[in-house]
Amino acid sequence: MNRAAKDFPFVPYQGQSFSEVESLARARQFYEYMNRRCSVREFSDRPIPRQLIMHLVMTAATAPSGAHKQPWTFCVVGDPQLKRQIREAAEKEEFENYHGRMSEDWLRDLAPLGTDWHKPFLEIAPYLIVVFKKVYDVIDGQKRKNYYVNESVGLATGFLLAAIHHAGLVALTHTPSPMNFLQKILNRPENERPFLLIPVGYPAAGATVPDLQRKRAEEVIVWYEGEKEG
């Protein structure tokens, strides 16, 4: 341990340990559970307890980050008027995207998802979680650099989506482009930039999703293993 590290307190690691058999079973069960997660665009307006959302966000905030800077802000929007403003602004940008900004290849790739510029879920879902990345911090009036901001906030968002699924809720990763209107509507400071807009709620009765298939293990994993001894 270098001298700089000694200037900060360290505590004993208190993790869990399982047998190889149990670890394998837990890994398989978690994969099978997460493999049922999918993006949903048809939401119920059924209310969600505020405390539930708080726990989901705080789970996201346990993600690792560059130099432990935690460069994120999660804006939780439940106010109907704000949700309407966000929907109107998002639909304005999405209309432009679907009518000229997007390439033909992009539109063709989106076709199986059945999406268009209409985004009613932005008003129907009981909460919108708008994830902002903090490109720098301001401490005592001074700018302080953050590191690996996109990577850190991306990891936190992944934790958030897993937590939402674990709680029996559904979500959608929505990225209207450009997203600058979110910074203005929510009155966020200059050092924050919108990263992702996530409606959260219960699925609507009779909700459907595209019948999509994920890539197989041999398509996403490349093994590099040396020869085993013995």
Q: What is the CATH first-level class name of one domain? A: Alpha Beta
Q: Mean of residue pLDDT?
A: 93
Number of strands: 6
CATH topology (fold) name of one domain: NADH Oxidase
The sequence of SSEs as H and E is HHHEHHHEEEHEHEH
Structural class: alpha+beta
* Broad shape: globular
What does this structure look like?
The chain has a domain at 46-202: NADH Oxidase (3-Layer(aba) Sandwich). A hairpin with a 2-residue loop joins strand 3 and strand 4 (142-145). It starts with a helix and ends in a 10-residue tail after the last helix. It is 40% helix and 15% strand. The mean pLDDT is 93. The chain has helices at residues 3-6, 20-34, 50-60, 80-101, 104-110, 121-124, 149-166, 180-185, 217-220, and strands at residues 72-77, 127-134, 136-139, 142-145, 170-171, 192-201. It has a four-stranded antiparallel sheet. Strands 3-4 form a two-stranded antiparallel ribbon. The chain contains nine helices and six strands. By secondary structure, the chain is α+β, with helices and mostly antiparallel strands.
